[in-house]
Amino acid sequence: MKFIGYWASQEQYSMQDLFKFVLEAERGGFTTTMTSDHFHPWHHDGGFGNFTWVWLAAAAEKTKSMKFVTGVTAPVFRYNPAIIAQAFASIDVLYPGRIALGIGTGEAMNEVSVGFDWPSPKIRLDRTIEALLIIKKLWNKVEIGQQQMNNESYSNSNSLSGNDFITFKGQYFKTNDAKLYTPPSSENIPLYMAASGSEAIHAAAYYTDGLITISKPEQAKKVFDRFDKAAREAGKDPLELEKIGKPKISYSEDYDKAFKSSDFWRATEIEDVFNTEINNPMKLQQKAEQEVSDEKLKKSTLIVTSIEDLIKPLEEYFDAGFTQIYLQSTSPDEVEFVQKFCNKVLPYFRDRQ
User: Fold this and answer.
1) 28-43 tens-digit pLDDT
2) Helix (H, G, I), strand (E, B), or coil: what is residue 121?
3) Could you give the strand order of the β-sheet that contains 158-162, starting from the edge strand earlier in sequence?
4) Hey, which residues does 302 pair with through a beta bridge?
């Protein structure tokens, strides 16, 4: 089923404000929230560094039935995959069926900042795949289709020691008789992966339940064709996998205010930004101010002065093959955006389902 979810930006807003936004979103009809998982923000001025896992548990308690998914948690250095498995299994026990995990290869601003070197994209992807295998084994995760791992370094690297104890010996991660004594309550916690390069897209199809991509609708066909092909190779039905997008939006009746508010995300438009070794938000902000033009920023964000003007561009996401989209609003008045979207746009898409 296609649906629109809300996005909670841990880098841009205080935890208290995010509670306010997500409660308003639930009252208005949103059923799922995706939320970022960072140590540092993309922008120094006015940035926040909320610890997402703490916020998730509190937000689930404050809401009635809102589901949550991270977009994304990076298991490459600062988070050990076994600890990720334990944390999200515990949240699932407290709030059954309301948690999903989005995985990605990370950014330097989160990993280098806490003392790690920033390796090549291939090493980050290899570490991510090992982490996925550990998490899935600890969750005893049910597979969609018959996955056949085509990489011997992973397929022969782990074993069961008996009684569901997991011993995994990878190139980067290891476990030794590890077992979750508080396992997930759900049979199958959804597990998604953010990917852009061809190898990462292939891994998302093989090892997870869906792809998270920042591709725009006009770029999505090539990405989805590659993802679907890899899914079929893994013995999966592509129609059973999610294709998740994240349109960036800024709404205000005053265009200049809406555009100014989008400046917080200028650094995300730096060329090849996910491979940059820069980890200091002050330096990221300075680099973005020097290299990212206003025109490029405008193209990256749906800047609207009428909330109904979002209908057509959001329809284009679904027409391009996305199954879920999460609205990353950077509007000057976020509560106003949520209320107007829920009143005038969300019912339109709900009626089309």
Assistant:
1) 999 999 999 999 999 9
2) helix
3) 158-162, 165-169, 174-178
4) 249
pLDDT band at 164 (very low <50, low <70, confident <90, very high): confident
Residue type, 49: G
**Please, which residues have CB within 8 angstroms of residue 272's CB and are 6 or more apart in sequence?**
none
**Which domains are present in the chain?**
3-352 (3.20.20.30)
Classify the C-alpha dihedral 42-318-100-122 as positive or negative.
negative
Rounded Cα distance between 104 and 69, Å, is: 13
d(CA 331, CA 334): 5
Helix (H) or strand (E) holding 304: strand 302-304
3-state secondary structure of 245: strand
- pLDDT, one tens digit per residue, over 252-296 is 999 999 999 999 999 999 999 999 999 999 999 999 999 999 999
Question: Has residue 147 got a pLDDT over 60?
Answer: no
Output the DSSP codes for 160-223: EEETTEEEEE-SS-EEEEE--SS--SSS---EEEE--SHHHHHHHHHHSSEEE----HHHHHHH
Question: What span, in angstroms and rounded, lies between the C-alpha atoms of 37 and 39?
Answer: 7
Residue 350 pLDDT grade (very low, low, confident, very high; cuts 50, 70, 90): confident
